[in-house]
Amino acid sequence: MNYIDNILFAILLAIGIGFFAMNVKKLVRNIKLGNDVDRKDNPSARWKNMAMIALGQSKMVKRPIAGILHIIVYLGFVIINLEVLEIIIDGLFGTHRIFSFLGGLYDVLIASFEILALLVLVAVVIFWARRNAIKLKRFMNPEMEGWPKNDGNIILYFEVVLMTLFLVMNATDADFQANHSGNVISQFIAPLFSDFSESSLHLVERTAWWLHIAGILVFLNYLYFSKHLHILLAFPNTYFADLNPKGELDNLESVTNEVKLMMDPTADPYAAPANPDAVPAKFGASDVQDLNWVQLLNAYTCTECGRCTSSCPANQTGKKLSPRKIMMDTRDRLEEVGKNIDANKGVFVPDNKSLLNDYITAEELWACTSCNACVEECPVNISPLSIIIDMRRYLVMEQSAAPMSLNAMMSNIENNGAPWQYNQQDRLNWKDEN
Predict the structure, then answer these.
(1) Which ranges constitute the DSSP H helices of 187-283?
(2) Distance CA 237, CA 302 (A)
(3) Which of 55, 255, 283, 322 has the CB geometry, 3.0–4.6 Å to 309, for a possible disulfide?
């Protein structure tokens, strides 16, 4: 018995999965560069979020056309690739359509796979037209030029090739077509190969089979370099999302402790610090290592769909801020830091660059109105606002680099107890006005 095909398949599978595992390890390492934050509370609400938003696509359908098309492609990706299990077993053990013993159920499954494959092809064509022919405004922003635009198109081409190979594989499987069950779509493709000899037909079927599984493994490893990493990360991202009401900002623990100390009448203001050698905590964030791990997970999960930017009032009024760009810049800087660590044997060597200024400007940060529109619109619960707030904290508390109007307001609060330049004794004079 010839085992060469099985051995070659096992080698291909091992290389594909091994390379993917290596990239996953790197991904986890990069995310763990962030500060620790506790997101283990209320597990029932977190599981519900993941089921409704990541699995159920509940936020996608807020924009019905894109939402329905996305659900079709999503179902195609999840359900059609169940046949990958059959391909793996056939490839390793030399069998052919090992699950065909299921009889009628197998026919129903294959038929549903073929229908979904066709629907995916239709959806992908529409997606391509929206990006490249209709040119929807949210796909034309400056941050989408170059690689982001090409990446979006490459994924669409991948989908077309994989679905086409699947249908061709079925159409040229002579035994499968002879049964006339489950071939609801491929039966219309089969006549294209009617003039082929039996050996040629078998060669086409085997070629499509090999290219299909090889394409899936290439696609799997391409995810790490693509915005489509959200296919995998949407699940942990929605689980670990912030459950607090939108608009509720967290407090810096170091500042909270300092305020509590100031308000404690029994505290000794001249007491020596508990740990005099401790490095003072940094206020806010100037680089990716200052963010928490959930924010870095957010950056890798970003789908670059642009719903956040298209809903941002600052962006709509012509300001420089784009919440999508905030997430893309964070991911790009994190990747740069990760490559630095790889190049220096696991140690980050300062490169005189940072997320602030080199990627994200103060102008972008101060344009944000903190309205949470970007957070509300994101289909996978990403929060660009949390990164913006942390970077603004750094500008204010570490660099005293707030805008003049904000500095004036903070001075008024400090001196007068109110944002306005009134004496404290005059604060209630408004009640006497007619």
Answers:
(1) 198-222, 230-239, 253-263
(2) 10
(3) 322
Are the CB atoms for 394 and 290 separated by under 8 Å? Answer: yes
C-alpha distances in Å from residue 422, one per residue of 340, 402, 408, 418, 425: 52, 22, 12, 8, 8
Q: How far apart are CA 302 and CA 227, in angstroms?
A: 7
pTM: 0.89
CA quadruple 262, 267, 268, 270: dihedral sign: negative
Maximum Cα–Cα distance across the chain: 101
Torsion of CA 25, 31, 37, 40, to 10 degrees: -50
CA-based nearest residue to 373, from 280, 329, 310: 310
- For residue range 189-223, list pLDDT tens digits in order: 999 998 999 999 999 999 999 999 999 999 999 99
Amino acid present at 427: R
> What does the block give as tokens for 1?
């018995």
Question: Tell me: the pLDDT tens digits for 345-359?
Answer: 999 999 999 999 999
What count of other Cβ atoms lies within 10 Å of the Cβ of residue 125?
A: 13
**Burial class of residue 318 in the structure, from the number of CB atoms within 10 Å of its CB (0-12 exposed, 13-18 middle, 19+ buried):** exposed
